[in-house]
Amino acid sequence: MNNLRIVFMGTPHFSVGILEAIKAAGMNLAGIVTVADKPAGRGQLMHESPVKQFAVQNGIPVLQPLKLKDAEFLQELEGLNADVFVVVAFRMLPTEVWKMPKLGTFNLHASLLPDYRGAAPINWSIINGDQKTGVSTFFIDEAIDTGNVIGQTEMDIADNESAGELHDRMIEVGGKLVVETLNRIANKAVNPIPQTALGTSMRPAPKLFKENTQIDWKASPETIHNLIRGLNPYPAAWTTWKNSKGELKNVKVFKTVISDQKGKGSLQLSSSKTQLFVDTNEKQIEIVEFQVEGKKKMTAKEWLVGNNPGDWSIISA
Fold first, then answer.
1. Helix (H, G, I), strand (E, B) or coil at 76
2. Mapping DSSP to helix (H, G, I), strand (E, B) and coil, where does residue 6 land?
3. Residue ranges making up the domain that contains 288
């Protein structure tokens, strides 16, 4: 156990998993920084981030600045007298913040840097069909995800693994790496490595929007399948179906299987008693789990109880 005073910055459930690893290691969480509460849901009730909920449950001081350059926030942050800041799934920090602690500010990133700098590294590693990925800790500098690397842990990507499944596995692996990094900093055993010395692969991991999450059914079966599992459960790959009445419905597709049956490229839906297929250029693709606009998420077996796939056609990207 080390005596570092740690201030943690993060927002989503992924961040909470790392906080739990730090707490389990008996380390000193002097404070937590997260987003301000926001109205959410139909009732627009105020919603606390998962990280704030963790802070409250564990009696840890929490700061929720609207602006990271706000003088009052900077004064409160400095008053926590941190030795190091740990950043996991937060936002870009101004210089005034990341330069504040004497032992630096480091980030946990869900890739083997310098590969997949950006907002969605877990998704893009699967979308691109990679078999390996990992997590990295690095000291923050002026740019995004470019700082010197402290440590890395490689991970295999399992066949047909979804982004959600990989995300959950990364929480455990990332937590161990963060704790290891904190111990190395405390013991002055850090030897940061410039990212230029770690490899030549520098593929981007941009944010996910409607434009880059639409399914192109004319692509290869592997490309289609990887896009769908790489966006499951969020934000989900999507396509458009047209029914016999001419109505268009957006459909989120969560799970697919590449069939052994050859395709003719008709882009028509077909089915057995319990299975739903799309006829693509190379092979048929089985749609296992999906959500039609305005309906709940369901399996193909559930949908086929009251629907005829012959009434629907697919509009390709």
1. helix
2. strand
3. 210-315
Q: Give Cα separations from 286 to 56, 233, 257 (angstroms).
A: 45, 18, 5
Closest CA to 271 of 228, 300, 314, 297: 300
- Give yes or no: residues 177 and 64 share one domain: yes
Tens-digit pLDDT profile for the chain (317 aa)? 579 999 999 999 999 999 999 999 999 999 999 999 987 766 667 789 999 999 999 999 999 999 999 999 999 999 999 999 999 999 999 999 999 999 999 999 999 999 999 999 999 999 999 999 999 999 999 999 999 999 999 999 999 999 999 999 999 999 999 999 999 999 999 999 999 999 889 999 999 999 999 999 999 999 999 999 999 999 999 999 999 899 999 999 999 999 999 999 898 899 988 999 999 999 999 999 999 999 999 999 999 999 999 999 898 76
- Least Cα distance to 175 among 20, 4, 311 occurs for 20
* Cα distance between residue 40 and residue 284, in whole Å: 40
CATH number at residue 263: 3.10.25.10
- Collapsing DSSP states into helix, strand and coil, what is residue 61? coil
Which DSSP symbol is given to 310? Answer: G
Q: Are residues 277 and 139 in the same domain?
A: no
Total length of the chain: 317
Q: Are 62 and 37 in contact (CB under 8 A)?
A: no
Query: 180 and 200: one domain?
Result: yes
In SS3 terms, 192-235 reads as CECHHHCCCCCCEECCCCHHHCECCCCCCHHHHHHHHHHCCCCC
Could you give the number of structural domains in the chain?
A: 2
Contact between residue 63 and residue 32 where contact means Cβ atoms under 8 Å apart: yes
Phi/psi-derived region of residue 131, left when phi > 0, alpha when psi is between -120 and 50, beta in every other case: alpha
